[in-house]
Fold this sequence. Notes:
This protein is an alpha+beta fold. The chain has one domain (6-292): Carbon-nitrogen hydrolase (Nitrilase/N-carbamoyl-D-aminoacid amidohydrolase), CATH 3.60.110. Helices cover 23% and strands 29% of the residues. It has helices spanning 20-36, 71-83, 162-170, 190-211, 269-276, and strands at 6-13, 41-44, 86-96, 99-107, 113-118, 124-125, 128-129, 144-146, 149-153, 175-180, 183-184, 215-219, 221-224, 234-237, 241-243, 249-252, 259-266.
Amino acid sequence: MTAQTSLTVGLVQQTCSDDRQENLDRSFAGIRQAAAQGAGLVVLQELHASRYFCQIEDSNLFDLAETIPGPSIEQFGAIAAELGIVLVVSLFEKRAPGLYHNTAVVLEKDGSIAGCYRKMHIPDDPGYYEKFYFTPGDLGFQPIDTSVGKLGVLVCWDQWYPEAARLMALAGAEVLIYPTAIGWDPADEADEQARQLDAWQTIQRGHAIANGIPLVSVNRVGLEPDPEGKGPGALFWGNSFVAGCQGEILAQAGAKEEEVLVVEIDQQRSERVRRIWPFLRDRRIDFYNELTRRFRD
């Protein structure tokens, strides 16, 4: 465990437009605001440099991808070094011609790359056609060592899979972090929207509880129209939040506006909670081998 007793985390929940520089400027402003309020770790939402382009399948949109390292990493690295913070950013990675990933990059306080995580679970649903753009990650579920602790960075759709959170925890992650882009179909009834939001928050709170570690989830916000003008678009529901080791909500943003949350996490609490709820101790690993099967017919 890290020697620190507490960690102040900043979450930047923002809207996105078709103007890349405007999006980056919003991210930069949010990072600076969080750092000014004492954040030592700042987390941005999924694919914050652009609108959520996966609403449609268009091969021209691969032009949005960038290399790592590359210009964006240089810019964000410079800000991390200037402010002396650890920074989690989310990029559409161009690994090679025809090979692209949805990648989170962790930058150290000196601006260097501490590590990367490539999104492992790739959805393919109406309005979320990510399999067209992203190759599944190949870096595994490995926490990234930083000066503020071991960060279990995952991305959006990964947040529905308890296996991903568990493997990060078993590898020593001290906090789970989910840059996210999730929203409603604006045509859905209000009660369906409420169920979806509740399910999204509940599953993540469950990861915090089952693993006895805090969790940070940063979502985008606002209506992003269908680029082809055929559908209602995506209404991203915000509600970025931080949960403690027993799933308690430490702070939560709203559903409609941009917001910067700054939250202090007690880094000693995982030890105390795991002593009274020793879930890792009591796992029956001798009977879990069939979890690697797709289904038990």
